[in-house]
């Protein structure tokens, strides 16, 4: 029995030595792994590089930002162009509207004043009245009136004619910078030596205006 007890103790001692050796080997391997990890960390800190996982996490949004940046810039440029074009269109539309309104107002004023000047006559100031008509005439109307101005002055004086005209309505048919067509409704009262108290008469005329020497003048006058 004694020899068997000795052999069992020897086997147990050997097993303990093997286990201790394996434990020391595992500990050495763990220390080596820790040392390698520490060395890699020191190198990363020395070079300023992010940790491997952090690099991956940071590069993804950076790549997405770089991908969307040209698209965002293009959209911003498109929106700016649209707003700029819309603003220009509105400004131009406003300018056109204001210009057209000014042209219509000017044409209406010239036609109204022209009808009064042409048809409001007084034998006392016959020459001045006829000259005023000439000054506000151009084109065909002036050519037709030019040959009759002296005859008109003589008839006004001989008949002692006095004509009053009142414009009741004006409608601009068309208007531009250098021409216009205007419809004018008015009433006239023409007294003379044979009819000192005439009844008022209503009439309508189409007045064509044309630019002459920097201002609109009557180029044609037609009764409707």
Please write out the topology:
Layout: H1 2-47, H2 52-119, H3 126-135, H4 139-146, H5 149-159, E1 162-175, E2 179-191, E3 201-212, E4 215-223
Antiparallel strand pairs: 1-2, 2-3, 3-4
Q: Calculate the mean pLDDT score and round it.
A: 80
Radius of gyration: 54 Å
Order of helices and strands: HHHHHEEEE
Output the CATH class name of the domain at 105-223: Alpha Beta
Percent helix among the residues? Answer: 55-70%
Number of strands: 4
Report low-confidence residues grouped into runs of 5 or more.
1-10
CATH architecture of the domain at 105-223: Roll
Order of strands side by side in the largest beta sheet?
1-2-3-4
> Per CATH, what is the topology of the domain at 105-223?
Nuclear Transport Factor 2, Chain: A
Biggest sheet overview: 4 strands, antiparallel
Secondary-structure class = alpha+beta
Summarize, please.
This protein is α+β, with helices and mostly antiparallel strands and 224 residues long. Helices cover 64% and strands 21% of the residues. It has a domain of 119 residues: Roll (Nuclear Transport Factor 2, Chain: A), CATH 3.10.450.
Describe the structure.
With 224 residues, the protein is of the alpha+beta class. It has a domain at 105-223: VirB8 protein (Nuclear Transport Factor 2, Chain: A). Helices cover 64% and strands 21% of the residues. It has 5 helices and 4 strands, in the order H-H-H-H-H-E-E-E-E. Strands 1-2-3-4 form a 4-stranded antiparallel β-sheet. The longest helix has 68 residues, at 52-119. It is rod-shaped and about 160 Å long.
């Amino acid at each position: 029995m004694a020899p068997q007890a000795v052999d069992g103790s020897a086997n147990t001692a050997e097993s303990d030595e093997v286990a201790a050796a394996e434990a020391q080997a595992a500990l050495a391997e763990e220390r080596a792994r820790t040392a390698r990890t520490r060395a890699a960390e020191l190198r990363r800190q020395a070079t300023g590089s992010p940790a491997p996982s952090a690099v991956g996490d940071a590069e993804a949004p950076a790549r997405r930002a770089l991908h969307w940046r040209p698209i965002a810039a293009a959209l911003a440029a498109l929106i700016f162009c649209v707003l700029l074009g819309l603003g220009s269109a509105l400004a131009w539309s406003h300018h056109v509207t204001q210009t057209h309104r000014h042209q219509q107002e000017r044409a209406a004023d010239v036609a109204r004043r022209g009808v009064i000047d042409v048809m409001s006559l007084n034998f006392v100031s016959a020459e001045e009245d006829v000259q005023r008509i000439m000054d506000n005439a151009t084109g065909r109307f002036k050519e037709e009136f030019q040959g009759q101005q002296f005859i008109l002055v003589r008839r006004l004086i001989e008949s002692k004619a006095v004509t009053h005209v009142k414009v009741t309505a004006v409608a601009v048919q068309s208007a531009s910078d250098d021409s216009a067509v205007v419809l004018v409704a008015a009433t006239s009262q023409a007294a003379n030596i044979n009819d000192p108290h005439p009844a008022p008469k209503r009439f309508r005329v189409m007045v064509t205006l044309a630019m002459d020497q920097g201002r609109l003048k009557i180029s044609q006058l037609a009764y409707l």
